[in-house]
Specification:
Strand content: under 5%
CATH class of the domain at 21-250: Mainly Alpha
Distance between the termini: 44 Å
Helix content: 55-70%
Radius of gyration: 24 Å
Largest sheet: none
CATH architecture of the domain at 21-250: Alpha Horseshoe
Structural class: mainly alpha
CATH topology of the domain at 21-250: Serine Threonine Protein Phosphatase 5, Tetratricopeptide repeat
């Protein structure tokens, strides 16, 4: 999953929490009925097959905590079941979310050693165990990306040696996504994964992993529309999973389907609240959906509901967030404030964004990104240079932090800060070059779903620099990769007006008004659009 302003990293530690037998039975019933298409036979005691399959089902919706419970239960009921330890190891490897901690790597290595010692009776099971063992082996010699790659290569072997095993194909496709190279403009692994998954989806449209991983494969501008059928299907497959109910909104956000986006995340929050009542750690799911909700509301001019999401973030106490998610909370709290100011074009408000004491440096950078963008629009060179200085200091702190790899995901954002700081100094051509470079990359590999598009920023800058013809061309490209954005449509209309293209301007204004139908909005841009359309 990508997100706005910084790499989306969830720091997850699985813990065993007590809950009643009645709650467990109820939850089994809710998820199991809707995900019956998962078939993963194992040679363990017949009495544990259902629990094992349930664990695999939960893995496919990234419900790692619950999955771990299932595999632990299998191991308790059948201690000789080697695959129960494979399942627990899989529950520790969050392939598209985060990098395994040292503790989880050590725990995973122990679990897979136990699985190997039990000598599973089938070659297929030994294949799965050996493939995951590769990920957890030699942890001091390989970095995370290398481990992900060798695991994917091992899963390719499992897939090829077990051609009738649908789960091998699904898990191999996921491993391709998890081992994709950053900024691969050819989307090599994503295309390879979706080629496998699309064939499976035709045969098994109710399999949660197939639909889920199609969405992740296509979570980019070039491929998003291909995942719309899977997106519309996935939530109905696993309606009790907050992540499953939320995931379709990745595609809805890419395609500018704002009401679908809103409905998806409202349902995901309801699902998260239900799971919270059952003592599961789901605040990260809820915060992620709140992030998407705020962004979607802003795109239809519904500032009241967008502000409500921001305020709800502000009511969450850090002490009430599980320790493993507190960095994530800090990042999303600051992101929410920056998004609310920047998307509404409230530059003075953005210039006054404040960091949170104690937040990690890679979370605080969003504050100075927002200040730099605002300072650029206000042509405030001193404020822009101050924002750049603080941003680069935080980058250096990040390099020395426990998560130095976060710097990799901040390069584009850093270039945006440099661009706006340069623009405030009058270095327009250099600012255009920097923003165009980021834009060209985003057009191919995508950006965070709730992130301001660099291409739209480039258009804003050109319009502000009195270059409306160039600005219009950039707005129109941006609206193809990030359709139906409020500011993209309004900016395109303005640029079209300034270049005497009245019909084109009217069409953009009309689309903006259509997107905001039924919303009470105080946005001056929307009022202007309605007035101009009414005067025709």
């Amino acid at each position: 999953m990508k997100t706005a302003f910084l790499p989306h990293v969830l720091v997850v530690t699985l813990t065993t929490l007590p809950f009643s037998a009645q709650e467990r039975e109820h939850h089994h019933h809710d998820i199991g009925e809707t995900a019956a298409s998962v078939t993963f036979p194992v040679s363990c005691a017949p009495a544990v097959q259902a629990s094992f399959t349930q664990g695999v089902t939960l893995l496919h919706s990234f419900e790692y905590e619950e999955a771990n419970h299932e595999f632990q239960e299998v191991a308790q009921r059948d201690p000789q079941c080697a695959m129960a330890y494979w399942g627990q190891g899989m529950s520790l490897y969050h392939q598209l979310w985060d990098r395994a901690s040292k503790d989880n790597l050590q725990r995973g290595a122990e679990l897979l050693a136990k699985a190997r010692d039990l000598k599973a009776p089938t070659a297929r099971e030994r294949d799965y165990i050996q493939a995951l063992s590769v990920f957890y082996a030699t942890t001091e010699k390989l970095d995370h990306n290398q481990r992900a790659s060798v695991y994917s290569k091992a899963m390719q072997g499992v897939y090829e040696r077990n051609p009738q095993d649908r789960e091998a194909a699904v898990f191999y496709a996921l491993s391709l996504l998890a081992s994709a190279q950053n900024n691969d403009t050819e989307l090599t692994n994503a295309k390879a994964a979706v080629a496998i998954l699309n064939n499976l989806f035709e045969e098994n449209p109710t399999h949660p992993g197939i639909a889920h991983y199609i969405i992740h494969s296509c979570d980019n501008p070039a491929m998003a529309s291909l995942a719309l059928p899977a997106a519309r299907k996935y939530a109905s497959i696993a309606p009790e999973s907050p992540h499953a109910v939320h995931m379709p909104s990745h595609i809805f956000a890419r395609l500018g389907l704002w009401q679908d986006d809103i409905n998806s995340n409202l349902a995901a929050i309801r699902a998260a609240d239900k799971m919270a009542d059952m003592h599961f750690h789901v605040m990260h799911h809820k915060m992620h959906s709140m992030d998407f909700l705020e962004y979607a509301y802003l795109q239809i001019g519904d500032d009241v509901n967008a502000k409500a999401q921001m305020h709800e973030f502000n009511t969450i106490r850090k002490a009430d967030v599980d320790a493993d998610f507190q960095d994530y909370f800090e990042a999303h709290l600051l992101q929410s404030r920056a998004m609310y100011a920047i998307e509404r074009r409230q530059w003075k408000e953005a210039l006054n964004l404040q960091p949170n004491p104690g937040a990690p440096p890679y979370a605080q950078v969003i504050v100075y990104w927002g200040r730099a963008v605002a300072a650029g629009h206000l042509h405030d060179a001193a404020a822009a240079q101050d924002a750049l200085k603080h941003y680069e200091e935080l980058l250096e702190e990040t390099k020395k932090s426990a998560k130095p790899y976060m710097v990799e995901g901040l390069k584009s954002q850093h270039d945006e800060v440099l661009a706006w700081a340069g623009y405030a100094l009058g270095k327009t051509d250099e600012a255009v070059r920097l923003l165009r470079s980021v834009s060209d990359m985003q057009d191919k590999v995508g950006k965070g779903e709730t992130e301001s598009p660099a291409r739209e920023m480039l258009a804003d800058l050109l319009l502000d620099a009195q270059r409306p013809q160039e600005a219009l061309a950039e707005y129109e490209i941006s609206l193809r990769t990030d359709p139906n954005r409020f500011n993209g449509l309004y900016g395109a209309a303005q640029a079209a007006n300034q270049t005497k293209q009245k019909e084109k301007a009217s069409s953009y204004y009309a689309q903006l008004v259509k997107n905001c139908e039924g919303v009470h909005s105080d946005r001056s841009e929307l009022g202007e659009a309605k007035t101009l359309l009414a005067s025709k």
